Amino acid sequence: MQMAAFVRSFALVALAALTACAGLGSRPIATTPWKDAQQLVLVTTADWNDKTGTLRRYERHGGQWREAGEATPITVGRSGSAWGVGLHPAQPDAPQKQEGDGRAPAGVFRIGTAFGYADTASTAWPYQGMSASDWCIDVPASPLYNRIVDARQVGDAAVEGSSEPMRRDLHAGGDVRYKLGFVIEHNPDNRSGAGSCIFAHLWRAPGEPTAGCTAMPEAAMRELLAWLDPRRKPVFALLPDNELERLHAAWDLPAPTPLH
Question: For residue 87, which phi and psi values (nearest 5 degrees)?
C-alpha cells in the first residue's frame, strides 16, 4: 500500500513538472465571450485621456494572435476613453462611459453592420448604404435610443432632437466622416444614458478627435473592411496601454506593443 501511494504521488509530481515545462500553466485558458474570435481589431492609446492612438489588426494562428497588415494612426474621443458596456466584465475602478462625455468606450465589443454613403462597399461584412432619412438616436429618453432608424418608417417625430444623421454629407455641410464605417456594439442593451451611436468611421482631418468614436484615414478603413471576414467572428477592442498590460493574458488579447 505504501509503495502504491508513493508511485501515485511521484506520477502527480512528474505530470505537474511536465506541464510547467511545456508552458501549459503559464497562461490561463481563455473562457471569454470572444474565445472563438479569429480576427481582432485592437485600438490602443497611451492613457485614459489621450485623444490619439494606434489601430492594429490581428489573426489567430495556432491559438496565438499574429499581427496582420500595418498599424494605422487613429483618433478617439475628445476627452479620451472610458470603460464601456460590451463583452467584457465590468471594470469599476476607472472612468465609465456616459452619454455626451466625449469619451470612446473601452473594452471588447462585437462589430456591427458596416455603413456608408454608397449603396455598396468592397467588403464581405454586412453593409448598409445610408439614406437622408437614416438617423442614429442619441436622445436618452427615446425608446429608440442607440439604434439606427429610418425616419420614413418610425416617423419624423421619433428622430427629433437627435444629432446623428447618418448622411452627414447631406445634413452637415458635406461632412465625410460617415462616408464609410461600421458600428461598434457598445451598450447593446441600449441602457439609457450609457452612451450611444459608437462607430469606427473616417476622420475629417488627421488628428482630429471625435465625440466618442474611433476615426481613421479612408484608405485604412477600406483595407479594414476588405479584411473583415464574418466566418472568423472578429471583435473590436479599445484599451489604454496600462489596461492592456494588466488584462491581455486573462482576456486572451495580444501583448502590448510599446510604440503608437
Answer: -85, -20
